[in-house]
Structure prediction request, 265 residues.
Amino acid sequence: MEPNIVFAFSLTIFAGLSTGIGSALAFFTKRTNKNFLSMSLGFSAGVMIYVSFVEIFQKARESLTVAHGDQLGYWLTVLSFFGGIIFILLIDMLVPSYGNPHEPRTIEDMDQQNPDPKLMRLGVFAAIAIAIHNFPEGIATFAAALTDPAVGISIAIAIAIHNIPEGIVVSVPIYYSTGSRAKAFWLSFLSGLSEPLGALIGYVLLRPFLSDTTFGILFAGVAGIMVFISLDELLPTAREYESGHNAVYGLIAGMAVMALSLLLF
Prediction:
C-alpha cells in the first residue's frame, strides 16, 4: 500500500477512535469542563467551515474546471457541495435519533442516575446512530488527507475533537443500564470504528474511477458534509454546554489557526 494511503487511513483511525477518549473522560474525571468542551467544539467547527470554503471547495472547483471548463466546472462544484449536504441530511433523517444521540451529557450524570436496564436501548441506538453519522466523516478525512496531508491533519484533529463528547453520549446511558464501565467504554470505542470503515469502503469503491471529475465531485461533497456537521451538530452542541460566548470564541480561533496553517504550509 502506498505511503500516502497508509497516512490517510492512519489519520482516519485517529479521528474515529477519539470517541474512546470521551468515554475514558467520563470514567476517569470527576467534573465536566463545560467551557473547555464548548470552546473545543466551536474550534472544531471553525476549522471545518474555514477549510471547507477556503481550501476544499476551491480545490474541487479547480479539478472540475480542468475536466469540464469554467462554467460547467463551477456548476458541478456547487451541485456537488449541496449534494454532500443532502447526503448527510438524509442520513440524519433516516437514522433514528433515539433519545437524540447528539444531546450533550456530562460526567456528573454518572452519579445522578441509578442503573436502569431500559437505558441500554438508548445507549445502543446512540452508538449505532453515531457510527452511521461517522461513516461519511471517515470518507471526508481520508479524501482530504490523500489529497493534501496538511489539510487532512487539520480535519482529522477537528473531527477527533467533535468525537470526544460523542464518546460521553454513548457511554453514559450504557453505564446507567449495566453498571459496567468496561461495556460502556468498549461500545463507545467501537462506534468510532465506522470512520476508518467509511474510508476503506470509499477507497475501494472509488479507486477504479479516480479522475479529476471524481476527485472534484468527492471533494465538493466533503465540503458540504463538513459545513452541515458544523452548523447542525457542533455549534448547537457547543452552545448547549455553556451560556456565554465560548463557542464563538472557539469558532474564531479555529478559523484563525486553520488560516495560519494554510499560509505556513
User: Anything to note?
Assistant: The mean pLDDT is 78.
